[in-house]
Design a protein that fits this description.
By secondary structure, the protein is mainly alpha-helical. It is 78% helix and 0% strand.
Length: 116
């Protein structure tokens, strides 16, 4: 750990980038579903769906910094909240949040084991 409270490892970055990349695709695809199936207004659907997708990509670019993992966690909460527009997103958001948490802890455990 070298004195750091939260050390970012290469494996953690890779796994978290994968989760956020897939999440960006899913939340972008929420936009047409919200508009056509759930009758959400176009500006709201575009802002939420595409806005979250862009934020996911931006956070992927910041994953070398520990603060990006806080931002990623906030994105997970926001993704769950999109369930208010498209109810299935409550379920998918929880799945992505579980993958996010798993990516962080599994990478830390695996890389901690390989350092010994």
């Amino acid at each position: 750990m070298s004195g750091a409270v939260f050390e970012v490892t290469p494996g953690m970055r890779r796994l978290c980038a994968t989760v956020l990349g897939m999440q960006a695709i899913v939340v972008a695809l929420v936009t047409p579903v919200a508009i056509t199936v759930n009758d959400v207004s176009v500006p709201v659907a575009l802002t939420v769906g595409l806005g979250l997708a862009v934020l996911c990509v931006v956070v992927v670019g910041m994953l070398k910094r520990p603060a990006a993992y806080i931002a990623g966690t906030v994105l997970e909460v926001l993704t769950i909240a999109t369930g208010f527009l498209v109810p299935v997103m409550f379920f998918l958001g929880v799945i992505f949040a579980a993958l996010w948490i798993t990516a962080i802890f599994v990478a830390r455990r695996v890389e901690g084991t390989t350092k010994r």
